[in-house]
Design brief:
eight-stranded antiparallel β-sheet; mainly beta; 0% helix; Jelly Rolls; 113 residues
C-alpha cells in the first residue's frame, strides 16, 4: 500500500490514481495534514472494510462502481457520482458486495474537544 501524498501542482484523474487489485483494498493518500486528510481507495468485490467509528465527520464520494455502506445500522447503496457524510461518533462499515473506488475526506478543524 503506497500511502505517500500525490504530486502537488499536477492535474490528476482521481479514478485513475489507483487500480483494482484482486482480493484487495488499495488506499492512496492525496493529502494528509493535522487538520484532516483526503484519501482515495479501491475495494475489490468480496473485500469489505471493518466496522469503525471516527471522531470526525467523513465525506465519502463514490467515483467508480457501487458501494454498500452501513452507517449507524442503516444501509445505504451508493453509485458512481453519489456521496454521503458519515457522522462523527457513529459506527460504519462497507459491505463486501461490490467493487468500487471512493474518495474519503476528513476535516478535523472546527471540533470542540
Amino acid at each position: 500500500m503506497d500511502n505517500s501524498e500525490v504530486e502537488k501542482s499536477k492535474a490528476l484523474i482521481t479514478v485513475e490514481l489507483i487500480e483494482y487489485i484482486p482480493n484487495s483494498v488499495v488506499i492512496k493518500t492525496i493529502l494528509k495534514k493535522t487538520t484532516g486528510s483526503v484519501t482515495v481507495m479501491s475495494v475489490d468485490d468480496g473485500e469489505g472494510l471493518s466496522e469503525r467509528t471516527s471522531a470526525f465527520d467523513t465525506y465519502a464520494q463514490i467515483i467508480d462502481g457501487q458501494a454498500e455502506l452501513i452507517i449507524g445500522g442503516k444501509k445505504f447503496v451508493l453509485f458512481t457520482g453519489e456521496s454521503i457524510v458519515i457522522p462523527a461518533h457513529v459506527s460504519s462499515f462497507v459491505s463486501p458486495n461490490h467493487r468500487f473506488k471512493m474518495i474519503l475526506t476528513v476535516i478535523k478543524s472546527g471540533y470542540e474537544m
